[in-house]
Write a structure and sequence with these properties.
The chain is mainly alpha-helical. Helices cover 64% and strands 5% of the residues.
Length: 85
């Protein structure tokens, strides 16, 4: 969506994100409020996070990218079964 994200550590667990590069991580209510204020006051940071996060999603989590691994497995199975016959 091209928007900056604030998440808890658990909320972004398992994603290839880095705090301060793709999003802001805040695990307490005070930290979450501070992160919101930071984004409202720092347009450059807001833009930086949004741009990096969008780039990461398109490069790593886009449906075409994510499904490529599945497609590769299907192709291996077809080749293997063709070779076996």
């Amino acid at each position: 969506m091209g928007l900056p994200v604030i998440s808890t550590t658990i909320g972004c667990e398992g994603l290839a994100v880095r705090n301060g590069e793709h999003l802001l991580v805040a695990d307490t209510p005070d930290a979450f409020v501070n992160a919101c204020v930071m984004l409202l006051q720092d347009r450059e940071l807001t833009h930086h996070l949004a741009l990096n996060a969008r780039r990461l999603v398109l490069e790593r989590y886009d449906a075409q990218v994510a499904l490529q691994a599945l497609n590769d497995v299907y192709e291996e199975v077809v080749v293997y079964r063709t070779f076996e016959s």
